[in-house]
User: Fold this.
Amino acid sequence: MRLLDIFLLSLSHVRKSRMRSWLTIVGVIIGVASVVAIISIGQGMKENVQQRLGGFGADIITVIPGYFRATGVHSEMHTDRSVSTSSSINLTDKDYRVIKQVPGVMYVNGLVSGKADLKYDNEKTVVSVTGVDTSVWRQMDNTGLDDGRYLQSGDSNSIVVGYNLAYGAFLQPITLNRPITIGGKNFRVVGILKQSGGLGGGSDTGIYMPAEIAREVITEKVASNQFTSMVIKATDASLVEYLKADIEQKLMSSRQVNPRTKDFTVIASALIREQMSGVTQTLSLFLSAIAAVSLLVGAIGIANTMFMSVMERTRQIGLLKAIGTSEREIMKLFLIESGIFGLVGGIIGVIFGAAISLLIPYLGIQALGFGGDMRATITAGTILFAIGFSVVIGILSGIIPARHAAKMRPVDAIRYDQ
Assistant:
């Protein structure tokens, strides 16, 4: 029997049992749609995190007060066990000079960060203020300007504001040269940053001013020789890991501490990005595994339908074998039939899954803790994988019923009485 004849015979039986065939296919549709939607959401979530961490830069290292110590894990950022921290502001200009001397360091920006009261056009709010070193901030900023200019040496009452703060926080948008009162002092807006979409709002909701001025307006007390953090730009992104270790060693020697008494933490932005990507990938795989359970239920439905089909067509199988149809051809007959269930269910399931994914951005669901709306990304690879996987599941589900049919003796099959 030709392969085309076997295919047409299988297709005719699927059409003949239309209702049962569709009920079987519905199980596959639900499973495939779930897998496609969850994989797409996971991919979109991963891209969301990458975008929001992108502003940090792969060549950026940050030094913060306090030591985040973890045991039983490989990374310092995993602080779920034995956390030891200090919130005191203990980074000084001495540390600044030590870091600046480390080979491979291009720029060091000593930051003074805190909260301050802001008054603008009869409206009041509390904002995050970041005091920067105006001589290097421009070279280290990855956000870019939407309007105006960066801070310059000699600026004393000038500020640069984040995009969302400028255009979304007040009834009247903040524009260049508008007067703003921060911490009781009057300032003039000289620049507005582009929207960065940074983690936790990032630069979008902040205000930037010279570090020495920030010490005067923020509510936290920061001495004239202290910094709340330091941001370092490496000369080469590929050397960040070596540079991070070198900075840690130099600071421990300068501050006369050892690994057990260390009171600062050095963080490489690339490490944060890598770990966040790992978390989103693990979460995506976990959700996909849950969705795959529904696909497994669909596979059981196919197997059940195929067993029913074998029982109903026992005499037909006997007649086919009596006229010389081989066991191999009988196997193909039922495997093609189960494969059709998988193929049709896979195609329709992909359409439903894609529709769900396309609706995600319009539902206004927030991405998990990263800010911004959740979105889904459908790739050609996801579509091909889903259809291919459902066909394979369909064929595998039909193997046992097909073998059962192929092994029947013609005489017994013809005598079979339902």
About this structure: The longest strand covers residues 105-120. Residues 70-86 have pLDDT under 50 and may be disordered. The CA atoms of residues 252 and 258 lie 6 Å apart.
